[in-house]
Amino acid sequence: EVKDKKNGSENSDEVQGIRSNYVLRPRENMLSGVTQKLPTPLGNMYITVNKTQEGDFHEAFINLGLAGSDVRADTDAIGRLISLIFRLGSADSNQRMRAVIKQLEGISSGMVAGFNGDRVLSVPDAIAKGLKRVMEPDVYDNKQESLFVNEEVSSTATETPLQEESFAPVEHKEMCPLCGNYSVVMVEGCKKCNVQLGGCGAYSAC
């Protein structure tokens, strides 16, 4: 609550200014979206970014890992926060997008995917790369050869994958509750922490 310093009363002008900056834009019934398949150190990630009819970025959906896994929960949370930033009434759409990219780009982790210029340092870094690509002016023009409808959102999506040939295949990994590394994989129907993936090897759940 903002109050006048002299008499302690609420300053309506300041409060109104603060409130106007945090008004969320309502979701339209029809949005256009592009979905990308991106390699990350923890497996392939799908990121969908939807725009309004006016061309403003409005929401993002990020899917990585199996349903119920820690990494799925983390990426879902990141997607929701990005969507919240997109819908804020302050600054223009491209400024908000650039602000998100600046915060996520270059974050490194213990594992890296790709080589040379295609290196992906972490899941957040992969998200930043995906967001950068959707800022290219021709991405939403539906000029790509491969088109499909994303099942999670009502939109027309264009698949624009990175060149996966330069990336070694990786499995979906989950975080080990004992050592904290993303080294838990399915082995013969059981979740096990894999030493070769940097884990402790002590965790197992069937």
Automatic annotation (TrEMBL):
One of its GO terms (biological process) is DNA biosynthetic process. It is an enzyme of class 1 (oxidoreductase). Keywords: DNA synthesis, Nucleotide-binding. Residues 27-134 form the TSCPD domain. The keyword Chloroplast does not apply. It comes from the Bacteria. GO terms for molecular function: nucleotide binding; ribonucleoside-diphosphate reductase activity, thioredoxin disulfide as acceptor. Pfam families: TSCPD (PF12637). The keyword Cell membrane does not apply. Its EC number is 1.17.4.1. It catalyses: a 2'-deoxyribonucleoside 5'-diphosphate + [thioredoxin]-disulfide + H2O = a ribonucleoside 5'-diphosphate + [thioredoxin]-dithiol. Belongs to the ribonucleoside diphosphate reductase class-2 family. This is ribonucleoside-diphosphate reductase. It comes from candidate division WWE3 bacterium.
